[in-house]
Amino acid sequence: MVDDxxxxxxxxxxxxLYNDDYSSSPPTPMTVSPHSSAPSSPRRSLVSSSxxxxxxxxxxxxVLRAAVSAPSLLEVSINRRRDIDRExxxxxxxxxxxxxxxxxxxxxxVYHDETTLTCESDLERFSNEAPNTPHxxxxxxxxxxxxxxxxxxxxxGHVRDVCAKLFRKGRxxxxxxxxxxxxxxxxxxxxxxxxxxxxxPSGNYPSDNPTKYAPLLKxxxxxxxxxxxxxxxxxxxxxxxxxxxxxxxxxxRVSFDGNKTMSVLGQMSNLxxxxxxxxxxxxxxxxxxxxxxxxxxxTCLNLGSYNYLGFAxxxxxxxxxxxxxxxxxxxxxxxxxxxxxxxxxxxxxxETIVSKFVGKEDAMVLNxxxxxxxxxIPTLTSRGDLIISDxxxxxxIVNGARASGAAxxxxxxxxxxxxxxxxxxxxxxxxxRTRRPWNRILVVVEGIYSMEGEYCDxxxxxxxxxKYGAYVYLDEAHSIGAMGPSGRGCCEYTGVDPAxxxxxxxxxxxxxGGMGGYVAADRRVIDELRxxxxxxxxxxxxxxxxxxQIVSSFQVIMGEDGTNIGKQKLDALRDNSxxxxxxxxxxxxxxxxNYDSPIMPxxxxxxxxxxxxxxxCLKRGLAVVVVGFPAVPILMSRARFCIxxxxxxxxxxxxxxxxxxxxxxxxxxxxxSTFG
Length: 676
Ligand SMILES: Cc1ncc(COP(=O)(O)O)c(C=O)c1O
Prior knowledge:
By secondary structure, the protein is an alpha/beta fold. Among the domains are: 144-234, no CATH class; 333-542, Type I PLP-dependent aspartate aminotransferase-like (Major domain) (Aspartate Aminotransferase, domain 2, 3-Layer(aba) Sandwich), CATH 3.40.640.10. It is 42% helix and 11% strand. It has 25 helices and 18 strands. The strands form five sheets. Strands 6-14-13-12-9-7-8 form a seven-stranded mixed β-sheet, sandwiched between helices. The protein is globular and about 65 Å long. The structure holds pyridoxal-5'-phosphate. Pyridoxal-5'-phosphate is lined by residues 368-370, 373, 394, 396, 446, 450, 475, 477-478, 507, 509, 517.
């Protein structure tokens, strides 16, 4: 039975539990349109082996075909507003405006048509109220001050390094003699000193003299870590002592060496006189709390985890019982790869659900999302192939592409025109030197770009790829479960037939509260990948317990658990995200991304603002993620908010109030003024 006071219960789950009507209506089915067969393509097979393509009827794919067409979009939006029960709707006061903004964004970025909206008098009303999409480019002032900020940091760092060498004193200064005599970095030293009583500083091993080694870290990375990153490292890697739900407990950390190292404070009694800041803040009582074992934490509103559908909030009622049952009947690890003894019925179950959900013939699960890209891409492509990758694709894609041996080109972010130019050029000129045609061309894009909060221009990209016979590989790590009326991701949202995307990849770490990744494609491709993909064949298979978590969360999302929780979660995620985005934009912040995306980066630009923003937020009980160089270009430092279905409107309003104050304090309103 569920505890009424369960602190993790999301509003959606609470409603589901205590409202009798809740489970009565099944989730709205998707629009079904007739199967549009793809034109024959000059492409070579994606997998090298020959073999007959499966003739199995593909019912799942039919369900997903061409969900929405442009002219009906307005009706969808208007009907949606009419459907929502105003009394029940936490956003009834802003509903119309939110729907207008989301529809406008969708018309612009999915259908590239802004004219339809202006004809609708119903929506025109809101076009006056709604903020114009602000100019999102960095202002000249912000760009200059950002460069100056980095120059000051770098020059100061070098001056400090030189001073440390001159005066032989400094946090990071290690003289080579000191190292040699202390034996640091020398694993043999202890053995040696036991066998040799008279150890000379130079010793018998090269490791006795660290100067003989090339530095393990590149010098710029080393410098960057010491002189830039360490200054603000309290803003990253924050340890937490709770689930990643709407509210999290962030363990308090202290540093006694000027931020060079951080340690968890633990109990309050560990606090020394050297940390007056913590003592002062703690005594003021703001957001401080203690875990059951007495460790000091701050209870913060979580605006940074990928808990999109809020499974971390209501896990106790949605997934727990199944997961705990599976833990009793199956091992936590199968101790083998999929090709050996690593396949349980749960693995097959996950694969069946995934293929049905995304509308492909078959799917394969791997135990890491990162690994999925890093090992599937090299299995599909090799020397003689060309990978054309969006310039802002995730590192796992970059790693996979590099490991494949294929030639790599990048195209301008989400720019299908640039993609077309590159494709045309690739086909005209062929491979360098030999000028032979490329064996295969694989275009790799993401459903939602994790650092931009922007969805893929999938319709145009698919059109261009079909025109030139290139394969499409879509990474849905952030869009699967989070986008589209039934959570089926970017294809559903943009109305693209999943049959037109050759490989659908995604992860279970975001919307599903699990671990691992999947790849879904035609059965023949998946059969080949099962044999050839190193990430599956040579890697311990996904834990059955995690498989159960994935199965249970899918059942909730698909309404197969007999409740309407999944649908409510999807709606809550969309509403929360659109509300938060709308308010941030109203504040005059530079907010990147699109409506209906749960990721919203807010630009900070200046390196000093990264730390200031994060610390101010933490002080006010907001746990946020800040991102700086090298994860994003040097000028483009940002805070990245991830909204969840588990957030309530009250929580979001509290966060917005604090952010409004911080925006004033740190001068972040770049959409209103050049100076912020
Ligand atoms: C686009 C994209 N692909 C792949 C991954 C890797 O997924 P995972 O964290 O599940 O390993 C991520 C991680 O955030 C991602 O953003």
